[in-house]
Write a structure and sequence with these properties.
This protein is 35% helix and 25% strand. The chain is an alpha/beta fold. The chain has one domain: Rossmann fold (3-Layer(aba) Sandwich). The strands form 2 sheets. It has an 8-stranded mixed β-sheet with strand order 6-7-8-3-9-10-12-11, with helices on both faces. It has a 4-stranded antiparallel β-sheet with strand order 2-1-4-5, covered by helices on one side. β11 and β12 form a beta hairpin. The chain is globular, with a radius of gyration of 21 Å.
Length: 306
């Protein structure tokens, strides 16, 4: 894995509405993604994970901070050519494989849509060859290009969505809960596919999920988010072996164990945000050990380090 940082968020905030009705969905979040790395963003529903992904894709404007692609600020106003280049280099895989494909279009057109929009082919034969190569890469037959989405299962449809992103030859894929709507056996296939693509293409991933048991097998690092705020970030195995923040521990306690005896004896941790007293001393984003960050007050961090 390269040490080159291709994407970074610096004190990023996203606010919906204004005045008294303003709601801050993402609050002062900072992270980066290296080339060839998978950073997973984990939290419960409504924590701001998808909002972060859409802000990077420039669907939602940010209200504070900055987002950088390599050395270029991509938040705020950018010129048309820069935005076109950005949309080619950063692609998104959507959560719902049933709703993310146009039911009236054949797979050939669905996968080719980006090629048409960005004029990434010179002849019809070249376009068809790119579509076939993308389908083969995700484990689908080239003859599937003449079919419609309703003829495929959920797992196959998600592979089509991945092929649609890959045909653009991106550097970063934002995967927004790409397996949450799939059966367990199909989830494993899609995770293995994404891991293979990362290895073969040198792709970087921002993998958004709510299930820690899934992200363990695909992540290099994991960031835990609660109500729009990052509370912990660490290498994947460090987070599982030494979780520090109470919210991270609560999420890990909810991960099912495939052993009925262990599961029966397991103690579920319930996170109570009232346990934090930040009235006198404001919390800070602190590095406990190399690459392991946690959000808390000095007193809390001193206790967590014991």
């Amino acid at each position: 894995m390269s040490q080159e940082i291709i994407l970074s968020a610096e004190n990023m905030s996203v606010t919906f509405g204004s005045g008294r009705k303003a709601f801050r969905a993402v609050n002062d979040v900072s992270f980066f993604v290296r080339k060839g790395e998978t950073l997973s963003l984990v939290g419960e529903s409504g924590s701001g994970k998808t909002t972060i992904g859409r802000a990077i894709m420039r669907v939602h404007p940010i209200s504070g901070g900055a987002i950088r692609w390599k050395d270029t600020v991509i938040s705020g106003k950018v010129n048309g050519s820069a935005e076109r280049a950005l949309r080619q280099k950063i692609q998104m895989i959507f959560q719902d494989p049933m709703a993310s494909l146009n039911e009236r279009a054949k797979i050939d057109y669905i996968v080719s849509e980006g090629l048409y929009n960005y004029k990434l082919f010179t002849t019809e034969a070249e376009r068809r060859a790119k579509v076939e190569a993308a389908l083969l890469e995700v484990g689908l037959l080239p003859e599937f290009a003449s079919r419609f989405p309703h003829e495929f299962s959920g797992g196959q449809r998600q592979r089509i969505g991945i092929a649609r992103a890959l045909v653009m030859e991106p550097e970063l894929l934002i995967a927004d809960e790409p397996i949450s709507a799939l059966d367990v056996s199909i989830r494993a296939q899609v995770i293995n596919l994404l891991n293979r693509l990362k290895k073969d293409r040198g792709l970087s991933f921002l993998f958004i999920a709510h299930d820690l048991s899934v992200v363990r097998f695909i992540s290099d690092r994991i960031a835990v988010i609660y109500r729009g705020k990052l509370v912990e970030l660490a290498p994947a195995e460090v987070l599982f072996e030494h979780p520090v923040h109470p919210y991270t521990r609560a999420l890990l306690s909810a991960v099912p164990v495939p052993d009925p005896e262990i599961e029966k004896e397991k103690c579920l941790v319930v996170y109570d945000p009232a346990q934090h007293d930040y009235s006198k001393v404001a919390p800070a984003w602190t590095e406990l050990s190399p690459g392991h960050f946690v959000y808390g007050s000095d007193k809390e961090i001193a206790g967590w380090q014991k």
